[in-house]
Amino acid sequence: MTYDLLVHNIGQLILPKSSDKPLKGQEMKELNIIENAAIGIMDGKIAWLGSNAEAESLKASERIDAQGKVVSPGLVDPHTHLVFGGSREHELSLKQAGVPYLEILAQGGGILSTVGSTKKATEEELFEKASFHLERMISYGVTTLEAKSGYGLDADTELKQLRVVQKLKEKYPVSVVSTFLGAHAVPPGFKGKEDEFLEEMSRLFDDIKEGQLAEFVDIFCETGVFTIEQSRMFLQQAKEKGFGLKIHADEIDPLGGTELAVSLGAASADHLVAASDEGIRQLSEGNTVAVLLPGTTFYLGKDYYARARKMIDEGAAVALATDFNPGSCVTENLQMIMSLAALKLKMSAEEIWNAVTVNAAHAIGKASEAGTLEKGRSADFVIWDVPNYKYIPYHFGVNHAQSVYHSGKKLWERTAYGEIQLSPAR
Ligand SMILES: N=CN[C@@H](CCC(=O)O)C(=O)O
Ligand SMILES: [Zn+2]
Questions:
Q1: Among 298, 328, 329, 330, which residue has the most ligand 1 atoms within 8 Å of its CB, making it the best to mutate?
Q2: Any idea what DSSP says for residue 74?
Q3: Do residues 293 and 79 make contact, with C-beta atoms less than 8 angstroms apart?
Q4: 162 and 151, same structural domain?
Q5: Which residues contact 347 (CB under 8 A, 6 or more apart)?
Q6: Same domain, 330 and 202
Q7: What's phi and psi for 178, nearest 5 deg?
Q8: How many angstroms does the Cα of residue 296 sit away from the middle of ligand 1?
């Protein structure tokens, strides 16, 4: 047999364990690494994995010498707010002056400021802007990601955002999962009438399902936004319509969103900086993935991070994401988040790799396709210009990706110092 592509001379091949359940607790500490490895690709799928020595006798139309570097599955970013209008650099000085995130929102800024810019932008403008950010994510090694709506808060603009995600799915050869976050904030006209607003948003469920515009429904459960009871009702309705569930939970105040997520069987509970001991205990009982966003805690200038150590030590499944958005975490760089996870969440390199691959894939319902490399799976992988897998969290703030592949096709490569190349989108 002649493979389409053979990647040989791989110093370390990272192979997270695939499983029908997310990796929990102690399981997160195990990471399979094959030294001196090679992979064969056929029709966009992994057709063979083995030792570099065995690879010498194999035939291939194209051979890539990984020069003893590291190869991993494509990274999975399970929480992004990719589609939005405008930017919010004017809020930095407010943050510096100590104005809290929820206070900026209460004054009509924050998320509501981006809602204004997103309403004004045309669908084409939003698409161009989201494409720019998506291409940058790919350049950092991401081949599967989630993208939320939530900067419309009215039917037209929410659907406009979801259609942009749809178009991104069609144009880019990466895997994009779409989430409806119509319940991201309370628009000014609905202050004190939150239930009415949620009812209006839930009326979109049927159209969204019919148009296959989103796989998940999410809500921001937080002081001054939506209560636990409102979140329960909204998510329960979404579940009945067949959506997967996500929740922005216990980010600032410990309202009990973590417990709610577990009780509803949500795919993920995200943020969890203020999750209670009881919430953390319950995570270990279910399969809801704790999606931690240390970039947001860092960017909001807080000293107190999500208790990843307690979560893992007590048996929870943890994933990591950028939370890329124009207000609380303005970066597309998931490698930077890996460094923050090491430094601020005290996660080990093995836990971090599992958190940005298999567990991240579980958090967005993509575990059977993304997050690891094994025979028959899509050949989504990254060649990293690093000497070993521990090096990426260690050397922070820069891009270590050398080339990025999805379905065996090269999407991006660094061609020279400061120069990059993105393959034309399909
Ligand atoms: N916390 C709520 N939503 C986003 C922030 C959105 C924004 O500030 O624009 C988050 O996940 O951090
Ligand atoms: Zn978010």
A1: 328
A2: P
A3: yes
A4: yes
A5: 308, 309, 312, 318, 341, 355
A6: yes
A7: -110, 135
A8: 8
In DSSP notation, 355-379 reads HTTHHHHHHTT-TTTSSS--TTSB-
Is residue 387 located within the same domain as residue 318? no
Nearest to 383 by CA among 75, 155, 156: 75
Both tokens assigned to 273: 């900086």
**In this structure, are 337 and 256 located in the same domain?**
yes
Residues 257 and 315 in one domain: yes
Cα 51 to ligand 1 centroid, rounded to whole Å: 45
Greatest pairwise CA separation for the chain in angstroms: 71
Decide: 323 in ligand 1 pocket, CB within 6 A: yes
Asked if residue 223 is part of any domain, the answer here is yes
**Which atom of ligand 1 is least distant from the CA of 220?**
2
Protein residue closest via CA to atom 12 of ligand 1: 328
Nearest-Å Rg of the Cα atoms of the chain is 21
Ligand-binding annotation for 88, yes or no, is: yes
Structure tokens, 202: 């839930």
Model-wide pTM > 0.90: yes
Q: Which residue has the tokens 């809801």?
A: 288
Sign of the torsion angle spanned by Cα atoms 134, 140, 141, 146? negative
- pLDDT at position 415 is 85
CA-based nearest residue to 147, from 198, 201, 76, 99:
76
Q: Best of 89, 111, 331 to mutate for ligand 1, by most ligand atoms within 8 A of CB? A: 111
In this structure, are 160 and 308 located in the same domain? Answer: yes
Beta-carbon neighbour count of residue 98 at 10 Å? 8
Provide the domain limits for residue 243.
Answer: 76-364
Q: What is the pLDDT of residues 274-289, one digit of tens each?
A: 999 999 999 999 999 9
One domain for residues 48 and 143:
no
**Domain shared by 225 and 314, yes or no:** yes
The residue whose CB lies within 8 Å of the most ligand 1 atoms, and thus the one to mutate among 90, 105, 186, 248, is 248
Q: Which residues, given as ranges, of the chain have pLDDT below 70? A: 418-419, 424-426
**Structural domain contains residue 61:** yes
- Amino acid in the structure at residue 125: E
Question: Which residue, by CA, sits nearest to atom 5 of ligand 1?
Answer: 328
DSSP assignment, residue 324? Answer: B
Contact 283, 262 (CB under 8 A): yes
Q: Domain tally for the chain?
A: 2
Q: The CATH number of the domain where 25 resides is what?
A: 2.30.40.10
Query: What CATH number is given to the structural domain containing 306?
Result: 3.20.20.140
